[in-house]
Amino acid sequence: MSLKRIGILTSGGDAPGMNAAIRAVVLAAHHHQIEVIGFYHGFNGLVCEEHIVMAESLTLLKVSGIIHLGGTLLRSARCQLMHEEKGLKLAAKTLNEHNIDALVVIGGDGSFSGLLALKHYWSGQMIGIPGTIDNDLDGTDYTIGFATAVNTGIEAIDKIRDTADAFERIFIVELMGRHSGHITFNVGIACAAEQVLSFENFSIEKQSETLQQLATEIAEAKAACHSSYIIVIAENLWPGGAIELAKQLHQHADIECTPCILGHIQRGGSPVAKDRILATKMGVAAVQALIDGKSHVMVAEQDNAMHLIALDEAIKHKKLVSKQLIDAQQNILALTAQTQC
Ligand code: F6P
Q1: How many domains does one find in the chain?
Q2: What are the DSSP E strand ranges found in 205-261?
Q3: Does 122 fall in a domain?
Q4: Which residues does the annotation mark as catalytic?
């Protein structure tokens, strides 16, 4: 069967570079005389009532001038109906009505689970492009949006550092990442955070031990004249997050900390070069994979080369923060602690 029409949607938490990926898919498809239909609002664009127009043909004009834009031209959403048979049947019906031969989904693990569920109801080709700031998809070194989110986190914490230095304050900065510490560790290292608290180096059983250790190390750093002190912490790690940790440090050791939740600022902004280039390579590779008859796979990059990973393998959450990064943070922390004024 020849490939004539590709459907495309962006789903889940948006990530800077999604627009670059949409553009690459449209350009590569047009090069092969394949039409691309964009579905709006994630999988909701497939399961909406028929009278609402949530799909349109993506022309070259439509995707010009978007490579530098954050967010996503196609909008994004999480779609509860894709967890239900009714929704999956509706999605399959919409794809068939639009004569879609292949579906491209740019998103993260939840979006790919939706695709895997859809395969039992729709027989077209399907391919995932990893678009999430969390970098938590297996088989690819990086996901689209991660590099920008890390840069955004760094820029924000550099600014926090200025005011922390001025007031000799302790800050606890909470970073996104859902259940993975890729953003937290990378930002922490790049900002010379005095502490990085993440899933890889913290266990909930050791909560009180960690609290005691933090109190001791903060006291030592203050005694050694460190003017500011920044703790970066992964969201969903400490029960109650940065705010609760600040409260506990106060109650437990009379230490005043200022909590700061960076939040959705990390999802926005113009994608950095790395994300634009990764998105472009992945968009082109996705179209080529579909032309080659591939399906149920995710485009991935390993050591600068494009690969295809089975969708169900990509969502196993096995990709950990590299041990070198964790060790580097610990060694630097030990050296910083020895610095006296
Ligand atoms: O998956 C991307 C992400 O930004 C996570 O880092 C975060 O935990 C989650 O989405 C937030 O989702 P929402 O915007 O729906 O609150």
Answers
A1: 2
A2: 229-234, 258-261
A3: yes
A4: 134
How remote is the CA of residue 13 from the centroid of ligand 1, in Å?
Answer: 5
Sheet with 102-107: strands ordered across:
55-57, 35-39, 5-10, 102-107, 125-130, 297-302, 305-310
Burial group, residue 7, by CB count within 10 angstroms (0-12, 13-18, 19+): buried
User: ∠233-237-241 over CA atoms, to 5°?
Assistant: 70
Q: Does residue 117 sit in the same domain as residue 260? A: no
pLDDT band for position 156 (cuts 50, 70, 90): very high
DSSP H/E element including 164: helix 146-167
Residue nearest to atom 2 of ligand 1 (CA): 13
Q: Which of 20-34, 43-57, 192-206 has the lowest mean pLDDT?
A: 43-57
Q: How confident is the model at residue 336 (pLDDT cuts 50, 70, 90)?
A: confident
Helix (H, G, I), strand (E, B) or coil at 285: helix
Q: Using a 6 Å cutoff on CB, does residue 133 contact ligand 1?
A: yes
Q: Read off the pTM.
A: 0.96
Amino acid at 321: V
Proportion of the chain above pLDDT 70, given as a percent: 97
E strand or H helix that includes residue 324: helix 323-338
Domain coverage including residue 83: 5-145+271-314
> Residue 147: helix, strand or coil by DSSP?
helix
Does 134 sit in the ligand 1 pocket, CB within 6 Å? yes
Shortest-distance Cα residue to atom 13 of ligand 1: 13
Predicted local distance difference test score (pLDDT) of residue 333? 73
Structure tokens at 154: 């760094």
Residue 141 DSSP SS3: coil
* String of DSSP letters for 22-87: HHHHHHHHHHTT-EEEEESSTTHHHHS-TTS--EEE--TTTTTT-TT--S-TT-----GGGGSHHH
In CATH, what number is assigned to the domain containing residue 79? 3.40.50.450
Residue of minimum CA distance from atom 11 in ligand 1:
13
pLDDT at 48: 80
Contact 132, 143 (CB under 8 A): yes
